[in-house]
Amino acid sequence: MNRLEMTWKGVWGMARSKRKPVETNTKEENKKGKVIPLTSAIKSGKKQKVNNEEGNKTLFFLAFGGLMLLLFYPPFFRGLFFPVEQRWTLLFAAVLFFLTYLWKLSRREVAFLNHPLDFAAAALVVVYILAAVKPASRSLAVAEVAKVFLYFLTYWLVSRLGGQRRSLYLLNTMYLAAAGTALAALFSATEIVYIKDGFVGGRFYSTLQYPNALASYVGAGSLIGFYLWGQSDSRRRYLYAAANYLLLMVFLGTGSRGALLVFPGAVLLFWLLAPRGYRLNTLAHIAVSGGAALFGIARFIPLAVAKAYGPAWGWFILGLVVALSGQLVIQGTGRILFTARARWAAGIALLVLFLGGGFILVQRQMSVSPAAVEGQTSSLLARILPPQIMNRLQDINLETKSSKERLLWTKDAIKMVRERPLLGFGGGGWEAAYRQYQSYFYNSTQVHNDYAQVAVETGLTGLGVLALIWLFFLQAALANYRTLNGKERLQVAAVATAALNLGLHAALDFDLALGAISIMLWACFGLIRNMEEQRLGQETVMAAVEWKNKRAAYVTGAGFLTLILILFSVSYLAGVNSARRAAVALQRNNLNAAASYLEEAGRYDPFTASYNSDLAGILLQQGKNKEALTSALAASFKDPFNLNVLNRLAEAYWQNGALEEAIATMERARQIAPWVGAVWENLGRAYATAGINYLQAGKQDRARQMFQAAASLPDDVQEKVNTLGELKELHQQGGVALTPTLRLQAAIGQYFLGLTKEAAANLKAAAVDGQIKDEVQLWQAVLASSQGDEREASRLLAQVDKTNASLARQFDQLKKLPQLVR
């Protein structure tokens, strides 16, 4: 072709583009698998689909490298469960968002949200923000907004930065994090490294510090590992085989009953969804890895508990040898047998041999002693698994205490949803307000059902948005699965089943409260979203002329959002730092410095009530009662359901002479925590003390009301306890009960009401508690003196004087107070 012909063809091409829409050529090029040049989009002045490899490479590599780090480190920082680690991570994610959006802008891709899953994910953030307008706790609500924003940014980053080989890098990163967490569990069990609560009661907790969450996390990692093993070459399969063995071994060592209900189903679904060419090898690999994990865990945990660390690692290595030998057999069989039928037959034969060999080994006692208790038949599984794990597996049913409690806690959560059905109690609403709705006394800051917890925090609105997220995710996953083939289809199966494993187990526990697990789940959402984008080619660029006019606005908008997130995180972290300085100053008894630092913390973080409440306590010590009351009121406004905050407010009212308000505050505490025993005891003490103060002030009618309230507490408590019914066996220590302290306060009220017989009986019952014996004997002395028994009164008072002279000196003052006998 000569130069004239080339020119003519170029002119003809330009003329043709004027007569036909550019989109038609774009579709034809996409069908042929060709990349559409960015220059053609610029010249045409139309929005065009572009290649993901274009754009500023420096920005891309910085953002992508940061994303890999974001997906890797969370499990090693206590699972990202605590707010400080969460805010640092949000700060990091905000910077990555800005870099990523700048990279997108370098390609003239301006869309922030352009898929139903994008909008649903963003809507969840909006709902949490709306729920924070009138929350049960401002600090907890704001903390939850930060968490949900972090998860959304994770999803957004993965969905924009992933793509074919890049998605493989991201999956390997999450897999490596899971494997590292599993290895940390073994290191902790054998004291190679110290991890607080990393190995407790013969169960793996690792860096997540919770075995059930660890089981869910490494289970999802295993599903990703099965895919990575299936798509890799023969050499790398040995590495994945070793890591998958490690993950499954730690999974078994968690002893999580909920995970053992969910994970096998997820594995089965993954295998069923695997493309035909991968099913047999995948089945063989799963069977060999699982068998090796059983072999390794059989003695590792008992030996680790016995602190025989060398033999424990020996059993781990033996299991590793089994896993790698199985990989060698699988690989060799695939090379020798050429037909699918022959490979299936060989696979079944090897599986039978493997199971048979394991059975023989077990029968020869190459395992632990039976975990079954005396009188029960020892099962095969009981002879393999460590006793600590087997004992948990044997009581997987709805009749266990744990199962009953979780069902009841979910019912209590439903009560809360009925109270605020639209937007709930705000983030952290369960933790803040659950005591008002609990059916009996228990301590649990989590519902142990993440979906019920979302409903409590954001009402039916938030639960509906979360349901839409799952719906759009499953829709996209199904569409990808139907369209893609081979390794891509296997990847869809792995990511989808890993997400389902995390999501289903979250209905049984509070796994998603750990940021590390939620980040993995939202990364799975993002990967599926990215696969659909890669499949459909939805990314578009803005026309050159329009871009020139609007790019400053887009950069400014992205920068503004990033700046808000940075300031939001930094201000919280600065508040934490000031609070820590206040704690140090308080330890040194430097009250002025402590107060100054707490005021500073409150300025940095205006949402956390504890700063105001702690400041009120210091101001009370300094005698600044009015300032203390102001600070305590500010704390109660931010956290109206917090018992510690209410107690401090009552104290501030009391020190300011506002006894009525102090009593009303204590009664409100009983209203919002009716099953907490300490609340009743504090209220009884307040009634008795207020009655004495009123009596000293000559306000006998008001004093009588206080003493009557104190005297009636035993009957009120007994009536409350009687409502427990069948739940009495679940009612935990520290709950409402007729305690010696309550009997003492009731006796004081009864004494002043002239009910001396009842007072004597309650004082006698209260005397069994050594911690309040001095006070009981003081009142017994007062009672004896009022009845004319001065010898007994002197004897009791002498005993009090030996142990608490200052208390004994109150005798004369109390004895002079009149009894209110009608």
What is this entry, summarized?
With 822 residues, the protein is mostly helical. The protein has helices at 3-19, 22-31, 38-44, 57-72, 83-106, 116-131, 138-161, 165-189, 211-231, 234-254, 257-273, 276-305, 309-336, 340-363, 380-384, 387-393, 401-419, 429-433, 450-483, 486-505, 515-536, 544-587, 591-604, 609-621, 625-638, 643-655, 659-672, 677-696, 700-711, 713-722, 740-752, 756-766, 773-786, 790-803, 805-808, 811-816; strands spanning 199-200, 203-204. This is O-Antigen ligase.
**What's the shape?**
globular
Low-confidence sequence ranges: 1-53, 365-378
Helix content: over 70%
What is the rounded distance between the termini? Answer: 122 Å
Number of helices: 36
Largest sheet: 2 strands, antiparallel
Rg from Cα:
34 Å
**Could you give the order of strands across the largest sheet?**
1-2
Mean pLDDT across the residues is 88
| Strands, count | 2
Subcellular location: Membrane
Membrane topology: Multi-pass membrane protein
Pfam families: TPR_12, TPR_16, Wzy_C
GO cellular component, one term: membrane
Please write out the topology.
Layout: H1 3-19, H2 22-31, H3 38-44, H4 57-72, H5 83-106, H6 116-131, H7 138-161, H8 165-189, E1 199-200, E2 203-204, H9 211-231, H10 234-254, H11 257-273, H12 276-305, H13 309-336, H14 340-363, H15 380-384, H16 387-393, H17 401-419, H18 429-433, H19 450-483, H20 486-505, H21 515-536, H22 544-587, H23 591-604, H24 609-621, H25 625-638, H26 643-655, H27 659-672, H28 677-696, H29 700-711, H30 713-722, H31 740-752, H32 756-766, H33 773-786, H34 790-803, H35 805-808, H36 811-816
Antiparallel strand pairs: 1-2
Helix pairs in contact: 4-5, 4-7, 4-8, 5-7, 5-22, 6-7, 6-19, 7-21, 8-9, 8-10, 9-10, 9-11, 9-12, 9-20, 10-12, 10-13, 11-20, 12-13, 12-14, 17-19, 19-20, 19-21, 20-21, 22-23, 23-24, 24-25, 24-26, 25-26, 26-27, 27-28, 28-29, 28-31, 29-31, 31-32, 32-33, 33-34
Pfam families: TPR_12 (PF13424), TPR_16 (PF13432), Wzy_C (PF04932)
GO molecular function: ligase activity
Subcellular location: Membrane
